[in-house]
Design a protein that fits this description.
Helix content is 9%, strand content 51%. It is mainly β. It is globular, with a radius of gyration of 14 Å. The protein is built from one helix and six strands. The two termini are 26 Å apart.
Length: 78
């Protein structure tokens, strides 16, 4: 779903993009999962989860005048 060439940074450090198999192989248990990513012409729906903390988020972006803006979002914790 996400190409490994995607550049994402957290606190100035590059975030590694790994498959479920790679996570298991490396013994990594603390990670964020992109559960849903639907990109359309002028909207994007997403859901992410951080299972080790029982938290997640979901929402929708809309493209207006060539710029992506947050239309709606929610954050949850178990």
């Amino acid at each position: 779903m996400i190409k490994k060439t995607f550049n994402l940074y957290k606190f100035g450090q590059k975030v590694r993009i790994l498959s479920t198999l790679e996570l298991k192989k490396e013994g990594i248990n603390d990670y964020v999962v992109i559960d849903k990513l639907e990109v359309k012409k002028d909207t994007t729906d997403f859901e992410i989860s951080y299972k080790i903390e029982g938290a997640g988020s979901g929402g929708k972006f809309v493209k207006e005048n060539g710029e992506w803006k947050v239309l709606d979002y929610s954050v949850w914790e178990n």
